[in-house]
Amino acid sequence: MTASEFQVNLKQLGHLVEGARTILVLQPEKPDTDSLCSALVLEHLLGNLGKEVVMYSQDALPPYIDYFPGADRLVDELPRQFDLSILVDTGGAQQMARTLEKHQGRLAAKPFVIIDHHGTRSPLPFGTIDIIDATSAATGELLVKVARELGWSLTPEIASLVVPAITADTLGLTTPSVTAHTVQTVADMVSLGANLYELNQARLAAGALDPDVLQLKGRLLEQVEFLLDGQLALLVVDPATLKEYAKRYDPAALVVYDMQHVRGVQIAIVIRNYAPKIKLSLRANAPVAAPVAEAFGGGGHPQAAGATIEAGQPDDIRAKLIDVAKEVFSRETV
Description:
Blueprint: H1 3-19, E1 22-26, H2 33-47, E2 52-56, E3 84-88, H3 97-108, E4 112-116, E5 129-132, H4 139-150, H5 156-169, H6 180-192, H7 196-207, H8 211-222, E6 225-227, E7 232-237, H9 239-244, H10 251-260, E8 267-273, E9 278-284, H11 289-294, E10 299-301, E11 304-309, H12 314-331
Parallel strand pairs: 1-2, 1-3, 3-4, 4-5, 7-8
Antiparallel strand pairs: 6-7, 8-9, 9-11, 10-11
Helix pairs in contact: 2-4, 2-5, 4-5, 5-6, 8-10
């Protein structure tokens, strides 16, 4: 979106918040660190303005992020009444399909604001006020911009949520999305009270693997295929494995970064077969993830993207992925 559109929509957000009493904050159906921390940041920002904030999540939080202060305040039912909805860190309708199936009518009946940093996205099936900034490395970073523009106060509690939002989405400030502004935002949050050492220790403790999960990781890595002259690393995770570990660890998150960082690999893709639904997780070392995901109705960043296919056969998806990746490689520099 243009800078002028951003400013107009930002001003509209300020007016809507000013006139609202109860504000509903939503995030994607598979929460991650950036989405959860962004929701919690908004809870603090809006709560400090005297607003009642209800944080909704269709799915339970995975164990590796449920330790953040305030995570226990998420609910899986909409409040009886609310004046405004704000959706954070969600690249499109695919990431909240079940939420829309249940609640689209009520959500569409009230002003609906999207605050996000995904440049490639699919629109929601009703009117929204979009505050999108693809130059922000994380939605947490964007929320600091929003707060400063609107004169909302930043606190040490907010700072300690912004930092993990940014470091999670940038793999510790190492992805191409990181700018001088990103680094400065982290520095500002440290000056405000965020403790990098303590935040990292908490992350490591929450993400520690149980022995059987480590063994699962080994089994999954043994199943990875290397295709297209080693440029594509591909893995299919079967329904039984997904069901067994659903409440403990996402198998895609367990292995996709190891797959990505094999010598010669340009893109790593995990096909999660939920039968009949199929979900794709893509991580790339070249700007090819979003173009591949778009071929399946998904989107995201050039080097990190995802897609959901409502019904399909893994073998068919695998074959199409190989063809799409080959075509994208042919027109992108890899």
